[in-house]
Fold each of these.
Amino acid sequence: MPFVFSKLLEHGASNPIVARLGLQTLQILDQCKIAKETRDKIAEVYMHSLQKKLIRCWEIEERFRSEFKSAVESYKPPLSGNQAIHLPQIARLEEECHNFLYEMKNYVRDLLKVFNLLYGTDFKEASEFFRAKKGSKSLVEFAASAFGQNDPKTKFLQEAVQQVEYMVNLRNAVEHPGGYSGETASIEL
């Protein structure tokens, strides 16, 4: 019976995302004192979901940087007296931004799955990272009560709140215009 190899990613271990969310995560999981079934489920989320979503965000950013650089380099100021000018543009910029935000929000959602596996919680929506559903706690509130306010895990999660909330709210404004997160007018990074 032959071995079957299938390509899962366009990037190898020289990409830090693949190295850290693949090889290093598996090595860390091997050192954890958790059930093999839980370890395998976490590894599956990392290898088949988190890694792919983060790679897609990285690819979108790389395309943007490349196209932006090309647009800047190709710009030629209008000659004196010319009525028409060529304004450089990045094709599909809005769609790429929407895709980036979608992948990022799903990345956070999948991180919650890992947290659920490790700590027996039941977080589902990316916004639960920073905002509690009615009658429950947010991930950050849970961490503070379960681990303590000064625990490194709690501090790490608290430091991430501002950026996670910002990105999730941007995506929610795209998905639900005029809703809780408002409208998508401009993005300031």
Amino acid sequence: MTEDAASEAERNRRADEKAAKRKAARAKIMATKTIEKGLLIVHTGKGKGKSTAGFGLVMRCLGHGFRVGVIQFIKGRWETGERAVLDRYPDLVTVKTMGGGFTWETQDRARDIAAARAAWEEAKRLMADPSYRLLLLDELNIVLRYDNLPISEIVETLAQRRPGLHVVVTGRNAKPELIEAADLVTEMTMIKHPFRGGVKAQAGIEF
């Protein structure tokens, strides 16, 4: 064996040893994770991708044959690609688009509060239905940011949900009370965005 071949073989041996140790350590950690429960998941932050990540979980559940519900609190006026896909699975997906449009488009706070309340009542109805495995409350954080629904009621209701129900809440500026109650919180951080360069919202990317 040449010196270079011997050196490469030694590097491979050390790498394999380290990989084996990592695998053993990982297996030891995983053995302690025995709890299975419905999670409260919050996607927040100023970066793009909060609703996209939520719909990714919806698609994942569909792949397992789980029934899911989607309540859209804000994006009421757009025809979105995800809605077109989900409409193909009426037996597994319930989508309720109940918002009046983006916050900068609405001019009637009383109407916004009424729409938020109607959407929340529908969300509670789906939460009470044991056939649903996951519920996406898209842009609920925006509703809470403008105090169109009481945060105390939201947190209390989510805390009392069925043990096996996963709930995903999206939208920037998540309230501290919701973050504290959540099992998983991800903050999307914006580094760059094409909108700042004059690029408009595009089908397949924003909607």
Amino acid sequence: MRALIIEDNVKISQIIAKTLLDAGLVSDICETAGDGRAAIDDITYDVVVLDLGLPDEDGLDVLRGVRKSGKAVPILILTARSDIRERVEGLDGGADDYLTKPFSPDELAARVRALLRRPGGALGVELSSGNAVLNTAERSVSIAGQSVVLSRREIDLLELLMRRAGRVVPKATIEENLYEFGAEVASNSVEVCVHRLRRNMEKATADIAIHTVRGVGYLLTEEQAG
């Protein structure tokens, strides 16, 4: 899953990105309203964390613009503005949640997960395919009831494949969801991650298979691997 952080304070944006990463989301960071607007126009995000006090434009104007364009992406306002009138203005303007600074990273993560669990959101509490179960809140995986240790990126990949089980997931989509915008990604990074996940699933006797569709991407099916 992918988040957009629109925040001009570098230290705060890094804290937010680390918090969201622990919750299973990779983040793109924009320091201005203009860059944030452009990112939302170009990329489909699962959630946006929006500061209001931006250097070039008020965050409320960004919020209104996004809603006017018809985009339904969940938006959580994270700001130092704590006046009740501003809270009301933000929520009435189309924000899905409103959190004031200073904030608890744990509360931020919980609020983001709650947004993603809403009907039509990107996050279900548990995903299952065959005898594999992924708890998206705890970021844990079990096979036939037994816990399996996977890396964060392997869990992110498994979640993406499970959400689209039975459909081919293009390699470009996997790169977009597993790696931050602008990150250096080796040409075989996805292949390596798929190989490791496939190997760990086979070791755990998962009755799912990850198929390579050459030149396109990957497909997860409920069947005995191998």
Amino acid sequence: MIATYIQELLATNNRVIVPNYGAFLVRATSKSKDANTLEEKLKDIYFSPFLKFNDELLEKHIIKKENITKEQAAQKITEFIDTVMKELEQEKPYTIEGFGEFVADKQGKVQFNTVEAKEVETPKETKKPAAKTTTTTKKATVAKETKAVKKAKIEEKPKAEETTKTASQAVKKETKLEEFKPEKKEEEKAPPTQTKSIYNYKKEKKPINKGLVWSIAIGVPLAAVFVWALLNFSTIKKVFDKDKAKTEKVAQTKKTTKKKTATKPEAKQEAKKQETEKAEPKKTEVKKPEVPQKKYYIIAGSFKNEKYAISYLNKLKAEGYNAEKLEQRNGMSAVSFNSFADKRKAIAEYKFLAQEKGLQAWILYY
């Protein structure tokens, strides 16, 4: 029954998540993504085992259809997943009539092939036997032609041998009459030409491109310094902040020394000013709101509905994550696993969640 519920939801939605197993998705580049029937979307449906969080779409649909509790609906989903996994462990596909089948490859990755994807592959297989028959007929005709050619060659061999013998005898008679004196002169002249070629045979050294060598020698260390600066941006910022603080202290000390060296009448005037300022009521200074510092957030999910975002935030906090909900950006509310001011710590946490725990996440500097 759950397979039929998935098909019903895919007719009106482009994403249906099976909690703790995967999601059926319609490709974003599909022309039929705005259609309201499953038949139009079948070509562009694929299965992703990475989206596993519960968006409660399937659960609510089951509760409406069968008038059951949320726990019972979740139990039915787990039973459906168990049946699919048992079939795949036995190296058998789990078929859903009129929709497609689940298949596991040699590495254990789960894939889903729709019905239309199979129908496209079948006509190619039916054409192969016809091609074999044509090749066999061609081989038979070629074999017959080769036999006829061999017979013709056997009959022509004795005639060709007689003609070659007569031709060779005529050539021998002519060679006896010819003199070879001019050829000997050419042979005597040959050695000096050979010595010249040997004398000139030297490997020429190609000139080194000095400009390319200098560019490599200067460019490589500059690139290394640039990469190091990107990786250690926070430490460089701290050094610059320290330098600014030192310069500010030096400026303050100079101001104080100038005040001390001032003349007595100037000091009296300053004392009068201070007394008048004390007598006058101090104006309340309005503090400017502090601008929040940017952080590296490891995003767990983004939601259009703020209620879903708050429920997912509470779920992550219950699991022990330092979760946060970001303000709405482009109409979406993002929820993060954790946040860091240091970029290296954020990258290390992202690798731990993605590679070791197998969770889907991305980093947002916000």
